[in-house]
Every structure is written in structure tokens, then in C-alpha cells.
Write a structure and sequence with these properties.
membrane, elongated, about 150 residues, transmembrane helix, Copper resistance protein CopD, about 0% strand, transmembrane
């Protein structure tokens, strides 16, 4: 598959994933916290999960595929030896952190979601949203050959 087509699918996934989290963090979460109503959050989560998780999977698959096209295989991950490896490695680290937040939310926070632990869920939501925006910004550096640390 051409790099350009992979990039289009990657960007569509990012639009859904990051856009959905921005809507959640900026549009839904303030209402949930103001009304102390976890059900509003759960309703959004149920709807968003149907498109958000596939979008995330599309981004992971296309991201790894594009990394290979750049010559960044598994053996080059986390070496930070050149600017494009740095972008790939930082995005993978942020992906891993996102997965940890998702696991935490799904196994520990959402099953017991109540008014009492809404602040913890808000922390998860804001964190994943910020990470998504950071990943988007990092990805933009691939266009310019990467980033040097």
C-alpha cells in the first residue's frame, strides 16, 4: 500500500480518536462534572467506543506500517538514533501510556463509576486527550524528517 494512502487512513483514525476525545474532554466532561452525573459519560463512552477503538486500531496498524516504510523496524524502536526514529519511538511510548490508561479505566474506574470517582475518570480522560494531541503534533514532524532531542 502506498505511503500516502496509509497516511490518509492514519489521519482519518486520528481525526476520529483525537476529535472524539476533544469532544469528550471539552464538551461532555464539564457537563458530567457540573451535574455529577456519570451516566452522561457512560452514554458517550458506549457510543464513541464503537468508532473510537477501530480508529485507534487503524492508527496503530498504519503507524507501524509507515514506520517500516521509513526503515524503522522493531529493532530500531526506542533507539532514538535519528530524528524519524525519535518520532516513532515517542509515539510508541505515548501509545503504551494510552493503553495503560485504557486498561486502568476499563478495569478499575468504569466498572465502579460513581460521583465519588468522577475526578479520577476526568483525570483519565484529560490525560488521554492530551496524549492524543501530543501524538498528533509528533506525527506532524514526520513530514519534516523527524525531531531531534
Amino acid at each position: 500500500m502506498s505511503h500516502h494512502l496509509l497516511l490518509i487512513f492514519h489521519l482519518l483514525g486520528a481525526a476520529v480518536w483525537v476529535g472524539g476525545h476533544l469532544v469528550l474532554a471539552i464538551g461532555i466532561l464539564p457537563e458530567v462534572l457540573k451535574k455529577n452525573d456519570p451516566e452522561i459519560l457512560l452514554n458517550f463512552e458506549r457510543k464513541f467506543e464503537k468508532i473510537g477503538i477501530p480508529a485507534l486500531l487503524v492508527m496503530v496498524i498504519t503507524g507501524v506500517w509507515m514506520a517500516y516504510q521509513f526503515g524503522i523496524g522493531v529493532s530500531a524502536w526506542f533507539r532514538f538514533s535519528n530524528p524519524i526514529e525519535t518520532v516513532v519511538s515517542l509515539k510508541l511510548i505515548l501509545l503504551f501510556i494510552t493503553v495503560l490508561f485504557a486498561l486502568s479505566a476499563n478495569f478499575f474506574v468504569l466498572p465502579k463509576l460513581s460521583v465519588k470517582n468522577l475526578p479520577l475518570m476526568a483525570f483519565h480522560i484529560i490525560s488521554v486527550t492530551v496524549i492524543g494531541v501530543l501524538m498528533l503534533i509528533l506525527g506532524s514532524f514526520a513530514r519534516y524528517g523527524g525531531i531531534s532531542l
